[in-house]
Amino acid sequence: MSPIISVQSLDKTYEGGFQALKSVSLDIQEGEVFALLGPNGAGKTTLISTICGLVIPTGGSITIGGFDTQKDYRAARKLVGLVPQEMPTAPFEKVIDTVSFTRGLFGLKKKPELIEEILKDLSLWDKRNNPIMTLSGGMKRRVLVAKALAHEPKVLFLDEPTAGVDVELRRDMWRLVGELKRRGVTIILTTHYIEEAEEMADRVGVINRGEIILVDEKAALMQKLGRKELTIELVEPLGVLPEGLDGQAITLSDDRRHITYSYDAQAERTGVTKLVTALSQSGVRFHDLNTRQSSLEDIFVDLVKAKS
């Protein structure tokens, strides 16, 4: 099946010579939730803005639903909803009016039942007649989401959708993303909150310094690159590690009561048995063992460090 978004060899160089995107190639499949991760200045917003037609690329091509974003801009843009980090809205306009107006910008007929459904999903229905200027920052962010959904896009871009918002809105956004996915909407989000990617994404892409350094399914990524940590709780403080264990991925806590061992859970030999045996033979007594799987955040930090 053809991807709903296809980015091929995309470049963007701004006046002054700064290259924000470097030969980026990326395919997004219909109906998936794709999380784009990267540090500040990595190129996340530039990539999204270029795909949505807000930034003109220096080179390469983009298609959305088979439409070239340069040659068939209107057809491609009609398929896309964008929730930017910030966007000015008319302060005196009512919530319901600004959301309804956005639908009209795409040449679509009025559909009040849809607008009502969107506003209720985002807990905005009770404030539908409020001027935007009277809303809190979190509520204004909800209005941006409602505007992006008003024309029933097949693809929704969420650029840092929950940055700086309260926990309630973040949970509402997660719930909404799940519902949109069930309806078949393709969702691409950038986020600084790694737990959002872990919670919602099917696939994860990592961008750094304008280059895509990895794209993989979330589960496969964590399986291939994730490591496990074994923490051994000691009965008594330990002065130094037993002979032969120095130099390995083993650390002794500051209070000398915990040994931490990092290992590849997929390896044929993890080294756990060897470690426990060595401690027992050295007379080190322990009364508890705990393991922890690396999180997506751990993997992300390691990837960015390795490519820097």
From TrEMBL:
InterPro entries: AAA+_ATPase, ABC_transporter-like_ATP-bd, ABC_transporter-like_CS, ABC_transporter_ATP-binding, P-loop_NTPase
Record CDD domains: ABC_DR_subfamily_A
Domain of life: Bacteria
PROSITE patterns, A to Z: ABC_TRANSPORTER_1, ABC_TRANSPORTER_2
Gene Ontology terms, MF aspect: ATP binding; ATP hydrolysis activity
Segments forming domain ABC transporter: 5-234
Keywords: ATP-binding, Nucleotide-binding, Transport
Family, similarity comment: Belongs to the ABC transporter superfamily.
Protein name, as recorded: ABC-2 type transport system ATP-binding protein
Organism from which the protein derives: Roseibium suaedae
